[in-house]
Amino acid sequence: MSQRILVVDDEESIVTLIQFNLEQAGYDVTTAMDGVTALNLAQTKGFDLIVLDLMIPEMDGLDVCKQLRLNKVMTPILMLTAKDEEFDKVLGLELGADDYMTKPFSPREVVARIRAILRRVGQAQQVDKEKEITSSLLQIGEVIIHADNYEVLYKNQALDLTPKEFELLLYLANHKGRVLTRDQLLNAVWNYEFVGDTRIVDVHISHLREKIEPNTRKPIYIKTVRGLGYKLEEPNLDV
Alpha-carbon distance 49 to 3, whole Å? Predict the structure, then answer.
């Protein structure tokens, strides 16, 4: 069965271009021209991925993304934006988008990005992507990771993590005590070179810290190693 993709953009020429190339690549494509329609489709139909433009009428792409994540719809999202401001890109990732592309773009690159996201998601769902998992349960301090069912507990309370946050935390946990560069984390979690844009790693590390660190200014779990990257440590909870 073909994987189903929702393409959302208010520029008909772009929708037609993306739809044609995705259908040529073997995907089943549904289209929408505004945010409200996109939100309704995404919540009622089972899509494998959403290509979502930032500037669309009725409800913009950021609001659509935010609402989907609030409603626990975790379908991967590739955000499209004609803007080049760092704020828009980082905010999209913070709200739960999995990747972004800036217009203008190559149709071949869109297809390649989509394939990479779907491949990563498929591998993660089968728990095959992380080859070094030796146990379905990992515990670091008061953080407990259930790898088999994508659940993380902190102080016995379930955390609401995005898929990317979960994968990043799991990778750090499986390499506890090791310093991991931002590029290593990009390649491991995002599964392809992200044009050297390591800000994505920093954004997700920041959000993980907000969820598991008692004091984000003095982290005891995820430590920054200046000039190198990050490492996850067993905290000293007696201090």
Answer: 8
